[in-house]
Amino acid sequence: MAKEEEKKSKKKGREDTAKISHDHPREDIRLLYDFEYNAIRETALVLAKGITYYITIFLGILGYIFTQNVEDDVKCIALTTILCMSVAILGAALYITWGLVTGLRSLQDLLKSSNSKLFNDVGVVDFFKRGEKVIKRVIFFCVIVLVALVYAMIKILPSSFFQCFW
């Protein structure tokens, strides 16, 4: 019996949000809404800043390598580090995007459960669908930019730099 309740509680998000709106007063719903909204907003800001900082640092390191007399071993280490960080940043960006989409759906369910008639009449469903599309497209283009930068770096560097990989 306890295991069944635990499994049900693990299916959090939409079901829990729907229960909250019927069991608690409006102030609690407003508090939950503010929390979810701020969490989504801050997560999106962190994602945007993280990608911006990464690209800035990435290009700074490449600029330094190409403008200064740097030993081949150091260039090889820098290339390896940039490639590894690109994979890590890409994975983190995808994971954060999944969190944003999940949070947006949770916020949608909370608003829908608090006043479904108003939710449907105003067309908030379309707003959330557009929000999900925008998030997915932004991350798609960020992935393209990251992959293009790494590809350009690999094409620009002479093949002698890649001897450190094998």
Based on CA atoms alone, the radius of gyration comes out at: 23 Å
Strand content: under 5%
H/E series, N to C? HHHHHH
| Spans of at least 5 consecutive residues with low confidence | 17-21
The overall strand count is: 0
Could you give a short account of the major beta sheet?
Answer: none
Level of helix content? Answer: over 70%
What is the overall pLDDT average?
75
Task: Give the overall silhouette.
Answer: elongated
Quickly give the structural class. mainly alpha
N-to-C CA distance: 56 Å
Please work out how many helical segments DSSP would assign: 6
Keywords: Membrane, Transmembrane, Transmembrane helix
Transmembrane segments: 44-65, 77-101, 138-157
Region (Disordered): 1-21
Describe this structure in words.
- The model is unreliable at 17-21 (pLDDT under 50).
- The protein has a domain at 43-158.
- 87% of the residues lie in helices and 0% in strands.
- The chain has 166 residues and is mainly α.
- Helix 2 (14-23) runs parallel beside helix 4 (72-114).
- The protein contains 6 helices and no strands.
- The longest helix has 43 residues, at 72-114.
- It has helices at 2-10, 14-23, 26-67, 72-114, 116-122, 124-156.
- It is elongated and about 65 Å long.
- The chain crosses the membrane at residues 44-65, 77-101, 138-157.
- Keywords: Membrane, Transmembrane, Transmembrane helix.
- Residues 1-21 are annotated as: Disordered.
